Inverse folding.
């Protein structure tokens, strides 16, 4: 309809110009200069209005496309005009503008939706072009690598030189596992790559996931199975030995038949009894040793309740501070949020905190101006946490990955269950236990909920 009106309007104006030109020529031939001059004026005005009409239409269309190009949808054309064709043109342009605006807003909404998904994703995502420029990196990746902003893979060399070399040689559809150690912790990265085409440009899409927790859970599960087998076999072997030894001792204590005249035989029997006493004692010790490992397997399901952090920290401070042997060490509380609440099993978490504090006290026994800080708050990821921090000698780097392994201990009298049991309790709370240690400066155990 619009094109027909414009067509007829233009054809009509051209016809009027042609008729006016013919009249002008006819009057000039008949030497009627007055009327020919008037026809000339009319001809000029008709040509002017034709050019204006065409230019006005072209200008509106040009304005419209410039506005669309600049994503400006506020442009509106008047729809009440004396010229019907221009009125219909303006109405059509306004309708087209509204339709494009709706599509644009819908695309923006979808883009924000996808961006929010990428931001909230628990995996790192980045897109790299063939020159190594990082076109996109979500916040999770920057947090995982503890580096922002990421613009080029060369920046990865500042995090870890080997990580940069891995990315510089990474090709589509490859899978790698990379252990990354930073100032906060050690994480294991599973790296997967694929390729996609965007606007004619081939890009490398890399997905990075921290699988440290999954590996840790598998490791703990393996140790749990091993301990279950060991305890079963050892208990089956020790129980009869202890029982028989105890029965023989009771028999002799009640005055069983013994040839008193035979001094040598009596001496042998006394030696036998002493040996049986040793067997009994050793069996009892071994049973107690095995029982301590059973506690690692029989952690009850947490009975969670809402507990104020200040209450549990003050309780731990009171319990640990009773030990006069470590009176030279100060215990300090630091709450970033005074009314912080935790959904935990109070008994189990108290047990974990006391165990960590006792370990810290033992490491501080020969240190002046020693302290233990109990810190509670919420980290940048929105997780609630409690930290046990001391200024002791720290944990040697070669042992930092061994301290949570069952059976492992650096103490002469330790069983090596405490830290592994603490980590198991935190895992059952849906959290984790992490450690960060700087030798001869400080050690921090972090309970994450």
């Amino acid at each position: 309809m619009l094109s027909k009106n414009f067509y007829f309007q233009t054809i009509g104006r051209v016809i009027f110009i042609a008729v006016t030109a013919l009249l002008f020529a006819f009057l000039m031939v008949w030497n009627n200069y007055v009327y020919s001059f008037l026809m000339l004026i009319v001809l000029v005005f008709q040509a002017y209005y034709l050019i204006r009409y065409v230019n006005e239409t072209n200008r509106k269309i040009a304005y419209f496309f410039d506005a669309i190009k600049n994503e400006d949808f506020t442009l509106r054309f008047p729809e009440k005009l004396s010229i019907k064709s221009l009125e219909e043109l303006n109405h059509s342009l306004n309708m087209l503008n509204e339709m494009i605006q709706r599509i644009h807003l819908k695309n923006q909404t979808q883009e924000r939706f996808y961006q929010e998904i990428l931001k909230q994703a628990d995996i790192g995502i980045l897109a790299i072009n063939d020159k190594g420029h990082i076109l996109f990196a979500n916040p999770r990746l920057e947090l995982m690598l503890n580096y922002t902003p990421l613009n080029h893979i060369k920046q990865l060399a500042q995090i870890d030189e080997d990580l940069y070399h891995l990315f510089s040689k990474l090709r589509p559809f490859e899978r790698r596992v990379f252990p990354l150690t930073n100032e906060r912790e050690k994480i294991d990265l599973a790296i997967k790559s694929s390729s996609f085409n965007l606007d004619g440009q081939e890009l490398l899409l890399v997905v990075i996931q921290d699988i440290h927790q999954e590996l840790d859970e598998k490791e703990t599960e393996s140790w749990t199975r091993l301990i279950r087998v060991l305890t079963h076999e050892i208990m089956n072997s020790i129980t009869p030995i202890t029982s028989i030894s105890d029965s023989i001792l009771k028999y002799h204590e009640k005055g069983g038949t013994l040839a008193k005249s035979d001094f040598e035989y009596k001496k042998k029997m006394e030696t036998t009894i002493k040996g049986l006493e040793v067997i009994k004692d050793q069996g009892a010790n071994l049973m107690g040793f095995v029982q301590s490992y059973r506690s690692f397997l029989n952690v009850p399901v947490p009975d969670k309740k809402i507990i104020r952090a200040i209450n549990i920290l003050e309780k731990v401070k009171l319990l640990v501070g009773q030990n006069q042997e470590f009176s030279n060490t100060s215990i300090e509380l630091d709450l970033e949020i005074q009314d912080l609440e935790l959904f935990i099993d109070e008994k189990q978490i108290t047990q974990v905190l006391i165990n960590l504090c006792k370990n810290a006290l033992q490491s501080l026994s020969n240190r002046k101006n020693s302290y233990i800080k109990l810190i509670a708050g919420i980290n940048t990821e929105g997780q609630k946490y409690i930290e046990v921090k001391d200024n002791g000698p720290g944990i040697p780097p070669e042992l930092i990955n061994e301290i949570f392994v069952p059976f492992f201990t650096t103490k002469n009298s330790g069983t090596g269950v405490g830290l592994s049991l603490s980590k198991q309790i935190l895992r059952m709370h849906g959290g984790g236990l992490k450690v960060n240690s700087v030798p001869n400066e400080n050690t921090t155990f972090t309970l994450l909920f």
User: Anything to note?
Assistant: The first strand starts at residue 124 and ends at 128. Residues 2-115 form one domain. The chain has four domains: 2-115, 121-210, 215-297, 305-448. The chain has a mean pLDDT of 76.
